[in-house]
Design goal:
It contains 8 helices and 6 strands; from the N terminus they run H-E-H-E-H-E-E-H-H-H-H-H-E-E. The strands form 2 sheets. Strands 2-1-3-4 form a 4-stranded mixed beta sheet, with helices on both faces. Strands 5-6 form a two-stranded antiparallel ribbon. Helix 2 packs parallel to helix 4 and helix 5 packs antiparallel against helix 6. 42% of the residues lie in helices and 10% in strands. It starts with 10 loop residues before the first helix and ends with a strand.
Length: 239
């Protein structure tokens, strides 16, 4: 699955200088689904991190230090130290998932802290599992996000329903790619959660069962809430 190459920038030093706590900084907005998948991966890997929130919109705009880190102005951004102690800036949610998965960040994973399983790192997966994870991530990025967005904006709901049926058949169980939680679950959850809130997926048993399992994780329980407390497809995770 081709993705942008990761980049390291000295501007991360300015962010680290603002705090003397965690060596991994997640710059985010809590309602952004792309940011949420990075947050889920960090939480599931037990990576110590500090969250810094920036506004997506508004008169004040984003702070200068954020624009220096990511000139595109998008969230999430993770600033971390790599294995050699060098500053590493990842300004793309897929890159952040890759870095968590390969242990570049959050490598000190504590086992047994998540009911039903923990995030399996890439080197813990067999060839078939890795292929399934890549298949799921491609499906989310290339199909679910554009088709789901179109449906929310008044596009073809039957096309979304057809895709959900296909995805339901892809679920291995209990997690998307098998017995263990993987990056596939991190990538999929914010978007399928929204679609369930907006349109409902109760008719897709495998997906519905999976959503319930993920929502019961200690890291997400009570921390992934609809804006205003009631639907609308816009979620808030609570720090």
């Amino acid at each position: 699955m081709p993705r942008p190459s990761r980049s390291g920038h000295s501007t991360a030093s300015a962010l680290f200088a603002r705090t003397d706590s965690a060596q991994t900084q997640l710059v985010t907005n809590k309602r952004c689904p792309f940011a949420q998948k990075a947050w889920i991966a960090l939480e599931a890997s037990d990576c110590p991190y500090e969250m810094r929130e920036v506004s997506l919109y508004g008169a004040g705009g984003k702070p200068d230090w954020f624009w220096e880190m990511n000139p595109r102005g998008t969230v999430p951004v993770v600033a971390a130290k790599d294995g050699g102690g060098e500053d590493l800036v990842l300004a793309d949610s897929e890159l952040i998932l890759d870095a968590v998965g390969d242990g570049s960040i959050g490598s000190s994973v504590k086992r047994g802290d998540i009911s039903g399983g923990v995030l399996a790192l890439s080197n813990e997966l067999n060839t078939e599992e890795k292929s399934l994870v890549d298949e799921w991530r491609d499906c989310i990025s290339k199909k679910l996000i554009p088709i789901g967005k179109s449906a929310v904006l008044g596009g073809s709901l039957p096309k979304l329903r057809e895709l959900l049926r296909e995805m339901n058949d892809m679920v291995v169980g209990p997690y998307l790619a098998g017995e263990r939680m993987t990056l596939a679950d991190c990538a999929a959850f914010p978007f399928l959660w929204r679609i369930n809130e907006e349109f409902g997926i109760n008719d897709q048993k495998n997906l519905n069962d999976w959503l319930k399992i993920v929502l019961k994780m200690s890291q997400l329980k009570g921390r992934f809430l609809p804006r205003g407390g009631g639907g609308g497809g816009d979620a808030l995770f609570v720090s």
